Amino acid sequence: MPLPLPRVLIDCDPGLDDVVAIAVASAHTSVVGITAVAGNAPLHHTERNARIACDLFGLDTVAVHSGAERPLVAPPRDATHVHGKTGLDGPPQREPSRPPDSRDAIEFLVESIRSEEGLWLIPTGPLTNVALAIRAARDLPGRLAGISFMGGSTSHGNVTATAEYNVWADPEAAAAVLAHGHETLIRMCGLNLTHQVRADPAFVGRLLTSSSEAAQFSGALIHHYRNYHAILVGDPTAGCPLHDPCAVLAVTHPDLFAFERRHVAVECSGSHTRGMTVVDGRGYEDPKARNVSVAMAIDADAALTLISAALTA
Ligand code: BDR
Ligand code: CA
Questions:
Q1: Could you give the CA distance from residue 35 to residue 129 in angstroms, rounded to a whole number?
Q2: Which of 20, 44, 243, 266 could form a disulfide with 194 if both were Cys (CB 3.0 to 4.6 A apart)?
Q3: 94, HSE (Cβ side, Cα atoms, 13 Å)
């Protein structure tokens, strides 16, 4: 008998790689609902893009709810210079087939988690919605199977030398969520991990020449992102990291990963380090303080095979 698929809530800011995460979730999980947050692009775009992703990957009955329009404390700062004005640059523009389901992502998260124990929550954008939901209902972390998020890093940042975008965009929210790491399992897929999973020109080429419409669309998204990344690093052949699907794979295929239990704090005030995840690597700190299972390594070939199969299915 096959094991039942994990039942998941996806909180995202699509965003090129968020779309890829939704594709992987559509193939390997039972998606209970999707909530959108402002991040890569303003909220009205990320919510709309989530509905487009549902159309592409057959999530016709999955509700999409829009949530926080801005971070808890920080000013809103998008990443449209990477993902494009609408958050989905690259392929021809599409219209979603249906209207949004609600504007109350926070209430949806609270109700879903209270009505079903053992859901996984997979945030792939700034953690604003998740922090607000936990603030509204303190019992939520204890009811989840876990939280698997893309964000942070054990090494370098991407927006600044030390900070990764999702945590940098709303550090107060990330700090509030990680504070619950003793009530629920928290898995962190940071840049140290996601930079191991790279889409190279051959990977993109296979998607673009696939007969599947979803694969062609995703191929065009990743093509756009790879070009941006190649210019950024000054190497025309460089593969681009596929960040967000890693947070889904950490739920669906944990055997591909090496996790280490670490204490992770979010820097909310440093002038050079605001938004940094401070990951304690000493090894002799109090083990009871360790609040996060940090993904350190992944079988990248297996991950890329799974991602490609999900996009072409
Ligand atoms: C993260 O930031 C966003 O731009 C991506 O969608 C990903 O979630 C990478 O730092
Ligand atoms: Ca994202």
A1: 8
A2: 243
A3: 22
Say if pTM beats, i.e. exceeds, 0.85: yes
- Mean pLDDT computed over 213-238: 96
Four-CA torsion 259, 260, 262, 264, nearest 10 degrees: -30
Quote the tokens at residue 291: 């609040």
| Residues labelled as active-site residues | 243
Atom from ligand 1 closest to the CA of residue 18? 6
Summarize pLDDT for 236-282 with one digit per residue, the tens.
999 999 999 999 999 999 999 999 999 999 999 999 999 999 999 99
Query: Please, what are the domains in the chain?
Result: 7-312 (3.90.245.10)
Chain centroid to CA 156:
18
Q: Cα(17)–Cα(158) distance, rounded to whole angstroms?
A: 15
Look at ligand 1, atom 4, and give the residue with the nearest C-alpha. Answer: 40
C-alpha 17 – ligand 2 centre gap (Å) = 6
